[in-house]
């Protein structure tokens, strides 16, 4: 038995799609003599994911994120390469595999498709029957997961009467009733308010801790990744560009920390000149009595101590770049180098 939940080696996925010129004549031609082009969605991607990990899978639109999740879920066949999930080949979709994996997409889910006019609990009961759960298993899981996700008050409401956020949370509970060991999440907080986002972040971490599950999530909301994941995999144009922890990514891209200094009085320009004379220090912004500088990480603590010792300040804060800033810079620099 493998020590990894997900094993991906040299994964490539090529789509074949029809192309045609605009206009009626070209449309008629395409019926009798269709033309196709090949689109390489994934190019030689390799990675492993261990039990209990929460991994953020990051990339711009069209990078290959959802394609990867669909292959891991067994929805798509890989064109080349090897993929194993929980010691199973996903596209064979064995009963054992399907009983251990949950794929929660950003689009309409099970409850919306199957139980739209029914109470949430009836939708949950369908899943109990599909996965052949005993009543005690079903009851205990509904009670526990509903409490964790804070949806106890909507269980008897028809799905169509719920807000988008309530449906999203109910959908996630529905997809965890069979206690999957691997959860694949595609844009889990899309359309959720900040309170619901925070509840979902806490829920995911608690679920992984309680059930030792593995989560792989894609999101354009970097707070999802920063709050939940300990590791990120970054791809673009179907190729893997980075695989490691978030702190390592920040050091790789920035290698600097930001220091915001607020002085007791309006600061003198001589102070700015003295700070700039230190190698590795740069001024980021200036306000009436505050100055924000950046310093190389290796000297940031020494710079902060020197400021505290030499100047009369009312406040000082050492800040790190947000993951959103890091990811934006990572892909921006990549485009400039293309």
UniProtKB/TrEMBL annotation:
An example molecular function term from Gene Ontology annotations: ATP binding
Domain ABC transporter: 26-262
SUPFAM superfamilies, alphabetized: P-loop containing nucleoside triphosphate hydrolases
Domain of life: Bacteria
Transmembrane segments: none
Alphabetized UniProt keyword annotations: ATP-binding, Nucleotide-binding, Transport
UniProt entry tagged with the keyword Transcription: no
PANTHER family according to UniProt: ABC TRANSPORTER ATP-BINDING PROTEIN, ABC TRANSPORTER RELATED
Protein name in the entry: ABC-type multidrug transport system, ATPase component
Source taxonomy: Bacteria, Bacillati, Bacillota, Clostridia, Thermoanaerobacterales
């Amino acid at each position: 038995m493998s020590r990894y939940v997900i094993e991906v080696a040299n994964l490539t996925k090529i789509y074949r799609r029809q192309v045609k010129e605009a206009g009626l004549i070209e449309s008629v031609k395409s019926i009798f003599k269709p033309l196709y082009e090949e689109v390489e969605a994934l190019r030689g991607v390799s990675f492993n994911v261990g039990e209990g990990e929460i991994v953020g899978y990051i990339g711009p639109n069209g990078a290959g994120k959802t394609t990867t999740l669909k292959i891991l879920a067994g929805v798509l066949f890989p064109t080349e390469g090897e993929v194993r999930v929980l010691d199973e080949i996903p596209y064979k979709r064995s009963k054992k595999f399907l009983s251990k994996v949950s794929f929660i997409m950003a689009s309409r889910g099970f409850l919306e498709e199957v139980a739209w006019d029914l109470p949430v609990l009836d939708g949950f009961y369908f899943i109990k029957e599909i996965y052949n759960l005993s009543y005690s298993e079903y009851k205990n899981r509904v009670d526990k997961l509903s409490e964790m996700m804070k949806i106890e008050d909507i269980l008897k409401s028809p799905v169509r009467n719920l807000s988008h956020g309530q449906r999203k949370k109910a959908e996630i509970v529905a997809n965890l009733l069979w206690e999957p060991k691997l959860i694949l999440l595609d844009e889990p907080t899309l359309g959720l308010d900040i309170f619901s986002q925070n509840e979902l972040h806490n829920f995911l971490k608690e679920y992984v801790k309680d059930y030792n599950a593995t989560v792989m999530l894609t999101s354009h909301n970097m707070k999802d990744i920063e709050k939940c994941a300990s590791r990120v995999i970054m791809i673009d144009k179907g190729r893997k560009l980075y695989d490691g922890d978030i702190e390592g990514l920040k050091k790789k891209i920035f290698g600097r920390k930001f220091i915001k200094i607020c002085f007791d009085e309006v600061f003198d320009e001589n102070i700015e000149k003295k700070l700039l004379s230190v190698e590795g220090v740069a001024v980021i912004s200036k306000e009436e009595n505050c100055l924000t500088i950046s310093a190389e990480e290796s000297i940031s603590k020494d710079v902060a101590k020197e400021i505290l010792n030499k100047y009369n300040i009312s406040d000082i804060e050492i800040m790190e770049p947000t993951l959103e800033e890091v990811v934006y810079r990572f892909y921006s620099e990549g485009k400039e180098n293309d």
